Amino acid sequence: MARPKEFDRDVALDRAMIVFWSKGFAATSTEDLVSAMGIGRQSMYNSFGDKRRLYLEALARYQDASVSGHINRLRSKKSLAGIEAMLVGVIADDRAVRERGCMGVNAVSELGCTDPDVTRLRGESDRRLSAALRARLEEAREAGELRRGLDVETAAAFVGTTMQGLQVGARAGRPLRALREVAHFAIASLR
Length: 191
Hints:
Layout: H1 9-23, H2 30-37, H3 41-48, H4 51-74, H5 79-89, H6 95-98, H7 103-111, H8 116-142, H9 152-171, H10 176-190
Helix pairs in contact: 1-2, 1-4, 4-5, 4-8, 5-8, 5-10, 8-9, 9-10
């Protein structure tokens, strides 16, 4: 009996993530996955379970890396400059990456609130990012950078919704310059 081919699980998961990120859950076939991952069908099932479990693991991995990146950009500069760095940083320079949008936003667009596991993953990420964003907005308010009377909770929701809109616009093929103008406009509206 031949031994199954060994593979790097993290590399295979990253490859599956890119397929799901590009195509979504429903449009991704098992053949798409095994082809991209460079493993056999049985190895995929043995290592990751079924397609849904693989999707959830890929989404969790994406969310963790994505939110960490957002928070790092948010904290790279003080006050509103950090928020602007985060918004502009959402927009990938590479067109192919940019046009994938955000895997998390894509998951919500595809599945809405119908999948409790996806809803839970997104909720955890949203809470983590929102807490960091509110802290930066409070700092901006204390520095006198926010428009007088602006509610921090509302401003955080506005920035979060703008991030999602930028990702949908990117996936729809909006030009890089237009997306960046929207990010700068959003920051200007908070001043």
